Amino acid sequence: MTENLDTNKKSNQSENKKFFTTITYGCQMNENDSERLSGQLKSIGYEYSDKLDEADIILINTCCVRESAEKKIYGKIGELKRLKSVNPNLIIGITGCMAQKDRDELFKKAPHIDLVMGTHNVHTLVDHIKEIEESKGKVLAVWDQAERLAPNVPTVRKGQISAWVPIMYGCNNFCTYCIVPYVRGRERSRPIKDIVEEINQLGEEGFKEITLLGQNVNSYGKDSEEGDFADLLKAVDSVNNIERIRYMTSHPRDMNEKVINTIRNSKNICEQFHLPIQSGSNTILSRMNRGYTTEYYLDLVQKIRSLMPEASITTDIIVGFPGETEELFEETLAFIKKVKYDAAYTFLYSQRSGTPAATMEEQIPLAVKKARLQKLMEAQNEISLHLNKQLEHRIVEVLVEGVSKSDDNKLMGRTRTNKIVIWEKVGIEKIGQLVQVEIKTAQTWVLKGSLV
Ligand code: SAH
Ligand code: SF4
Ligand code: F3S
């Protein structure tokens, strides 16, 4: 393939073509929103390109869960100014959670932006693009509230094996540190019928793995007459061609025996439990408004492990929440050693203005937070390695995802418990196939083996 090095002189073929790029930050819900934004742009004749220089539309789909994410995104928005000065017709759009939060402030901070579109407006993109194309003016499209359920729009999926399927939008929990309920609105569940139809379609298209998405999936159905999360799991378990079903994220308070039993009795729902504890101290959990205690949580872990000894359990933890003393932090350290998580995603507490915790007294200095994070990660890495070592010389079922990032001769996939496995390519494996791999060496984040 020859590249046209003169970027000012586009080839005849690409002259009529219009390109778009999306840059996505944040969680899987945002990734899925980007797929729906892409689908809409494709429906009006734009093609995807990963070359920013070539794009006629650039959408940055943003996250504001922590300040570090926001800083990174503002840096990226700044970088685009250069492209706008080269191509004044370029449309730059900021979508997602930061757009929902900062609204027209974004135009003031970055005058080269053309569109600011909030989280409740994902389905209205085409109208705004047309408006901008016709008037060359700026558009602010941020609704305060979501429609109960936005209409379906075309979706362009990023992968070919795994797909995300939203089952509900929004969050009602208002954990005191968290911005998500303010930028994603109240809980809205999709009808079971729509979800099953979407997964059926994905199965027909060749997808093998589905991840059901929601900020708090165990609340599914509480806002409607649809049945609960366990009923939904049962309904999606038997969709043709789909081998594996995952879901995220579940709130420990709403996880219950009915869900655990449904997973145990299911065929395709993976034995993987991501249960964010956030802190191992009851004092902090109560200030976080999490609605459970460590004793309740340990009981839940015990139930899962007694029914499914092979299940993996992972978590999210925040260090340095206001008022977290050294003793309270030590409680978290002791807690992870007790539970023995397969993995933990650890975060420095970040003050989000508008949330109750932001104005709580006894904010923790950054240096203290960083030292605690380091200690926590070291302790967790040791536990992860220890648990992974127990898989050495065992044979595990792996869904082939593709070539390993670090070596073209190796393939990569995941176990049902969501652990990454890498092995020397034999040549008979196909992407999307289930294979058996014998684990030879286990590391903290990957298992290395050979095809059986
Ligand atoms: N709805 C999901 C995901 C929320 S955001 C859930 O409830 O688990 C993902 C993670 O980001 C959270 O689990 C939490 O650990 C972390 N997080 C949220 N707000 C934060 C903040 N202000 N500072 C640091 N971490 C935060
Ligand atoms: Fe945020 Fe809590 Fe809702 Fe999760 S459950 S999105 S942490 S408010
Ligand atoms: Fe971020 Fe919004 Fe997701 S704040 S974590 S992108 S819901």
Write the SSE topology.
Blueprint: H1 12-15, E1 18-24, H2 28-43, E2 46-48, E3 57-62, H3 67-86, E4 91-96, H4 97-102, H5 105-109, E5 115-117, H6 125-135, E6 139-141, E7 162-166, E8 168-169, H7 180-184, E9 188-189, H8 192-204, E10 209-213, H9 229-236, E11 244-248, H10 257-265, E12 272-274, H11 282-287, H12 294-307, E13 312-319, H13 326-339, E14 343-348, H14 366-389, E15 395-404, E16 407-414, E17 420-424, E18 434-442, E19 446-451
Parallel strand pairs: 1-2, 1-3, 3-4, 4-5, 5-6, 7-10, 10-11, 12-13, 13-14, 17-19
Antiparallel strand pairs: 8-9, 15-16, 15-18, 16-17, 18-19
The chain binds S-adenosyl-L-homocysteine, iron/sulfur cluster and FE3-S4 cluster.
CATH topology of the largest domain: pyruvate-formate lyase- activating enzyme
Poorly predicted runs are 1-12
The CATH architecture designation of the largest domain is Alpha-Beta Horseshoe
Rg (C-alpha, Å): 23 Å
Percent in helix:
25-40%
Instruction: Please give the order of strands in the largest beta sheet.
Output: 2-1-3-4-5-6
What does the oligomeric state look like here?
A: single chain
First-last Cα distance: 38 Å
CATH superfamily label of the largest domain: tm_1862 like domain
The total beta strand count reads 19
Overall structural domain count:
3
Strand proportion, as a percent range, falls in 15-25%
Major pleated sheet: 6 strands, parallel
**The top level CATH class name of the largest domain:** Alpha Beta
Tally of alpha and pi helices: 14
The bound ligands are: S-adenosyl-L-homocysteine, iron/sulfur cluster, FE3-S4 cluster
Give the overall silhouette.
globular
Mean pLDDT: 94
Secondary-structure-based class equals alpha/beta
